[in-house]
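Risk register update: the risk of archive-format incompatibility is retired. Evidence:
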Amino acid sequence: MSREQVVAKSRDLMAPVLGTAQTAQLIDRLLEMEKIQDIRTLRPLLQVSSRTGPPRLSEYPSAK
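Archived output:
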């Protein structure tokens, strides 16, 4: 897979759970991982912040 394909697939899988903006931030940070001094700074981007509980199956792209 090309880099663009990996990014697109990652975006498709993460956006329903994390949201579009948070997904974009996470992907941007991961593409520059070699510059991250403390990997723990990624934790907030890996956590769902706006929902209570797990995502519903109907919110996943494959369920549509």
